[in-house]
């Protein structure tokens, strides 16, 4: 089952469950330059220049999180890639998957800018840049 949590709920789960793992599924550039939550494991779901699904995604997660009952929280820019990644992990047998709704940057506002309507940074949660 895939649970949808907002960024604050996801942060609370991470703080209160030592088995929980946060996986950032964005591209290397997004993770490094836009920023990421401290401790987030970076495993891209898709990567430039071809934007194809990472064929090693599930295998890479299995290396980091061999316990298929551990909570895995998935984060992308706005919540869609993370949901797709969660579905792939669900198909691979993982039981406690969390899609972080609105992702790191949230939805586009009326000026086509992210970060003003929601997301991890908007809510003032811990983050850093590489």
What does this structure look like?
The chain is globular, with a radius of gyration of 14 Å. It is of the alpha/beta class and 130 residues long. It has a five-stranded parallel β-sheet. The model has no long low-confidence stretch (mean pLDDT 95). It contains four helices and five strands.
Helical content, roughly? 25-40%
- List low-pLDDT spans: none
Q: Determine the strand fraction and express it as a percent band.
A: 5-15%
How big is the Rg? 14 Å
Give the CATH class. Answer: Alpha Beta
Q: What would the average pLDDT be, to the nearest integer?
A: 95
Looking at the overall shape, the CATH architecture is 3-Layer(aba) Sandwich
What is the molecular shape? globular
Total DSSP E strands: 5
Which short descriptors sum up this protein?
4 helices; about 130 residues; alpha/beta; about 30% helix; Oxidized Rhodanese, domain 1
Task: Write the topology of this structure.
Elements: E1 2-5, H1 7-16, E2 21-24, H2 28-34, E3 41-42, H3 57-64, E4 72-75, H4 80-91, E5 97-100
Parallel strand pairs: 1-5, 2-3, 2-4, 4-5
Structure in a nutshell:
The protein has helices spanning 7-16, 28-34, 57-64, 80-91, and strands at 2-5, 21-24, 41-42, 72-75, 97-100. The chain is built from 4 helices and 5 strands.
């Amino acid at each position: 089952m895939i649970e949808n949590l907002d960024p604050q709920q996801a942060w609370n789960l991470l703080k209160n469950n030592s088995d929980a793992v946060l996986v950032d599924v964005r591209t290397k550039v997004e993770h490094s330059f836009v920023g990421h939550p401290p401790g987030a494991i970076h495993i891209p779901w898709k990567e430039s220049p071809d934007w194809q699904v990472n064929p090693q995604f599930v295998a890479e997660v299995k290396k980091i999180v061999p316990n298929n009952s551990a909570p895995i929280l998935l984060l992308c820019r706005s919540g869609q890639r993370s949901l797709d990644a969660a579905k792939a992990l669900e198909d691979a047998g993982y039981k406690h998957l969390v899609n972080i709704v609105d992702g790191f940057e949230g939805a586009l506002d009326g000026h086509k800018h992210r970060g003003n309507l929601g997301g991890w940074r908007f809510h003032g949660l811990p983050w850093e840049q590489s």
